[in-house]
Amino acid sequence: MPEGHVTHRLAIGFTERLAGAPVRSTSPQGRFAEEAGEVDGHLLDAAEAYGKNLFVHFGDRAVHVHLGLAGKLAFVGDDGGGAARPITGAIRWRVENERGYADLRGPQACKLVDDAGIRSITDPLGPDPLREDADPEVGWARVRRSATPIGLLLMDQRISAGVGNIFRAEVLYRHRIDPMMQGRLLRRKEWDAIWTDLVGLMHDAVRKGRIDTVRPEHDPVAMGRAPRVDRHGGEVYVYRRADQACLVCATPVRTTTLGGRNLFWCPSCQRTSRRRVPAARG
DNA sequence: CCGGCATGGCAAA
DNA sequence: TTGCCCTGCCGGA
């Protein structure tokens, strides 16, 4: 479930449902028991997202959550406290008040940290398209001098924090860029367009709780065909659509492994092989 | 029923 | 580059 839009959505959910009052903090599974106990009964100030990291603030400390690949955090809100709150499966962290509760399962990280700990996590992060303080120049500075494929660079949290496998595949498709093209061959205008698009797509995903990237003119539903909504819940061009027809040109979508992750692209729409622009003289 | 896979990231080799 | 971790879900037997 976890690209940046999920984390930001969770931060909003935490703040709306559980902030501003003391919470009960436990670890039914036990692996977070000691630290959960340290903030049990404490005031939950707010939750904040930075890329794929979630910080749940308690005074000068915070619980740092990173969902990783398998993690899930579910809110069960507004049960009024009267209903049973069953313990099913491995619940690393349960946070609750009289209104409702949240269960965290299978996170890659769940740890109580202080200010220095927070900084050590956020300092290396690049601009997050979902944050007001994001400076895309920081990402561009790395991209423009890198021989690494742009398909890998976009997954690099130092370049664009919060972007994951779906957004990387989809934004490259939308800009017709070959994922294997070296970062240094990307044009400034292209980076600007990619960044602006990420800001829009990711905010949209925060609002809707799903990733939709297909433009209206290519939308199967609008064109009278069946939706192709993926298990992740959104309507996409190429992500996890290997061998299926490209929505625009009908060429079979290709897939390969890049950096240990599955990459998807349309070999026809995404052809940006180009010569390196000669350096300006003088 | 069970193995593999997943929107991630780390360490080891 | 590979393996491993976390957990739940899905597809194939």
TrEMBL record:
Its cofactor is Zn(2+). Residues 237-271 form the FPG-type domain. Residues 2-102 form the Formamidopyrimidine-DNA glycosylase catalytic domain. GO terms for molecular function: class I DNA-(apurinic or apyrimidinic site) endonuclease activity; damaged DNA binding; double-stranded DNA binding; oxidized purine nucleobase lesion DNA N-glycosylase activity; oxidized pyrimidine nucleobase lesion DNA N-glycosylase activity; zinc ion binding. One of its GO terms (biological process) is base-excision repair. Keywords: DNA damage, DNA repair, DNA-binding, Glycosidase, Hydrolase, Lyase, Metal-binding, Multifunctional enzyme, Zinc, Zinc-finger. PROSITE patterns: FPG_CAT, ZF_FPG_1, ZF_FPG_2. SMART domains: Fapy_DNA_glyco, H2TH. It catalyses: 2'-deoxyribonucleotide-(2'-deoxyribose 5'-phosphate)-2'-deoxyribonucleotide-DNA = a 3'-end 2'-deoxyribonucleotide-(2,3-dehydro-2,3-deoxyribose 5'-phosphate)-DNA + a 5'-end 5'-phospho-2'-deoxyribonucleoside-DNA + H(+). Its EC number is 4.2.99.18. InterPro entries: DNA_glyclase_Znf_dom_DNA_BS (IPR015887), FPG_cat (IPR012319), FPG_N (IPR035937), H2TH_FPG (IPR015886), Ribosomal_uS13-like_H2TH (IPR010979), Znf_DNA_glyclase/AP_lyase (IPR000214), Znf_FPG/IleRS (IPR010663). Gene3D superfamilies: 1.10.8.50, MutM-like, N-terminal. Belongs to the FPG family. This is DNA-(apurinic or apyrimidinic site) lyase. It comes from Nakamurella multipartita (strain ATCC 700099 / DSM 44233 / CIP 104796 / JCM 9543 / NBRC 105858 / Y-104) (Microsphaera multipartita).
